[in-house]
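Following up on my earlier thread - several people asked me to post the actual chain instead of describing it. Fair enough. Here it is, all 302 residues.
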Amino acid sequence: MDVCHVNNFFKTAVSVKILVTFYPEQRYKYMLYSGKTVFISGASRGIGKAIAVKLASEGANIIIAAKSVKEDNRLGGTIYSVAEEVNNSGGRALAVPCDIRDEDQIIEAVRQGTALFGGIDAVINNASAITLSTTEQLETKRFDLMFNINVRGTFLVTRHCIPFLKKSSNPHILTLSPPLDMNPKWFGQFGAYTVSKYNMSMLAMGWAAEFKGKIASNALWPATTIATAAVQNLLGGDMLVQRSRKPEIIADAVHYILQQSSPSYTGQTLIDETVLNAAGITDLDKYAVTPGGKLQKDLFLD
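Reply from S.P.:
Thanks for posting it. Predicted structure:
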């Protein structure tokens, strides 16, 4: 964050404080993301939920597009429970049942969101499927699930948001996918998953080139594992959760990224720690599930 940006930020912060003190009914108008609309896929729990609540705390409208409409005790959360948190946090929520494998459901979610909020300023491609299996172990249906969600779903969500992003004053596409490390070890252990996630990053870089100067497109990946239901249930159980960070670290990184100027802040495969360092946040221990404990580096990072 440069000095000019910092000064402008604090001038705005002072104005907000005065207005909150003397004109509390105007507080919403002066929140950072007031009037901005963000479409988040897979926002019923975990990282997607954390992003939704963080942006809502600054007044954003959130289109919560996910499949979960009934509580699952193993996973937790529904689009409706997240919508309640968004509304209670200062934002406005639209919960739309949406399986991003179904293009018609994506179109309907975009239609409902734009009808209610008037547009879309950012899309967060958060929805993803994971199966860490070798070629011989991986079932066809699991292969199809990963590619239909991670690749096809990410493409279709973005495609149908683009006409509205083009009308935004500072549009962003942010895809939660890793840097492109061609080390053979990432392909040899679970090649299908690796290719599906790298496809997401390649799409993100492609959009940066395709919409250069008009719409920002970046990828974002955590430096460590994140304490989500996937980590708990599919990857490492309690032991790995204890060596992970909370989803809020990604939410805070997204909060910073979406403030950046879209014509210039684009075409990057970002790591959450680096983003937060640029934002002036250097104490990352607060995000750890076990403060001071050993952390597990995430996949695709050497």
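Residues 32-287 form a domain with the Rossmann fold fold (CATH 3.40.50.720). That should answer part of your original question.
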